[in-house]
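pasting for ref
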Amino acid sequence: MESTHSLFPYSDNNKRYHTQSFYLKQRFGCKVIKISLNGGFTCPNIDGTKGLGGCTYCSASGSGDFGGNVSKPLCEQFEEVREALRRKWSDAKYIQYFQANTNTYAPLPRLKRLFEEALSFENTVGIAISTRADCIDNETADYLAELSKRTYLTVELGLQTVHDKTAELINRCHTYKDFLDGYEKLYSRGINVCIHIINGLPFETHDMMLETAAEAARLKPHALKIHLLYIIKGTQMEKLYLEGVFEALSREEYINIVCDQLEILPPEIVIQRITGDGSRSTLAAPGWSLDKKSVMNGIDMEMARRNSFQGCKLR
């Protein structure tokens, strides 16, 4: 019987999908670690420009629960995390990750100052910038294109779903067409884009979640993050959940959806995330998601049971 590696070229272990760790190892030849930094950004969906309160699932930290301490300079945020990591990986390289809120929602001079500072940190090989597609103007896109020629840059865009009805329900405050307009500004300039999608949004069926993955595949991004909907305490999403408006996905449902999505994604797309990291102190549901290792193992086991690989249904 052929080995997993010979059947799926983007793996050097038992994974049947193109992991971020595999990609980074092949590109840089060493351990590369993302370090979350908090640049003190807000969001047009929070400050009233587009909406108020943010997306209904978003935490108070702007989905940057594991990000840096915004009260400290970027250099201190970096050094604190690096010092803890150095004991285990003394020769690691770093990607500086601007995670919380919308990290292109500021005047270009401020963006340049923050991103250039982060790029100057020791052993930095890249920058990841999490943002909204409706917060990319041509001037910013031109700068990011120039930056991408100097470092490994990835711009992470929160799509979540291609279904505008769901987008309205979660208060995303932009349409799928708006997403495509922002995506094209980056893609046409040769900038690596990582698309975020969420499984388990209210009233979305299995087929709807597959449609979102299929659209993401059609766009041919550099990378994709697959998230489970975490229902966070104190959010509007929790209120709907507690009122019985919708049900959270079961572990088995989530695993099956992810495996079905992987099978229709081109194997070249890097899967940066297959599920998330919920915080025990803030998570309302689903409780099973706190055992991340079990979920990831479940996905591996189901792909092996099917004898399938990322992109196998595209052949």
